[in-house]
Structure prediction request, 180 residues.
Amino acid sequence: MDERRMVRISKYLAKHLRHEPERIGIGLDEQGWVGVETLLAASAANGFPIGREELEHVVAANDKRRYELRDGRIRAAQGHSVAVDLGLPAVAPPAVLYHGTVEVSVAAIRAEGLSRMSRGHVHLSADRETAVRVGSRRGRAVVLVVDAAAMHAAGHPFRVSANGVWLADHVPPEFIRFPG
Prediction:
């Protein structure tokens, strides 16, 4: 499969497994799963046919491991704007986590902290490089350092998705170190 087709399928999956399943007539269960055959049939009926081998290739080859296949079902690993409970247990985070953003957002983050916005969780990474890549999608990246150990000690739960993205409900500003 060529790279363009792989990207198109991945974006299609993100749209319908994270944000708008109803747009193609599928329903996600409470943990975000849908049957693979249901997804493939709905995709074809809505003018975007995906072969089973193509789907499996996109799931296996996606560098961010955005999707999970299990027992004939598929789901997005995280990043949902529709209500799902991924069933992830609370776990102790590393001492420090990172969040990539852009300069225009920093003032609001200083005042309010990191909010989940339209997503189910705030997304954090275990390494600075990932935060730079995330922040760079909308301009020059600003990397914020989260004192995850102190936040966890204060009773804030963390979860980690199957693809290694750390999830929090909110990161209060007192746990964030800003550059400069």
About this structure: The longest strand covers residues 96-102.
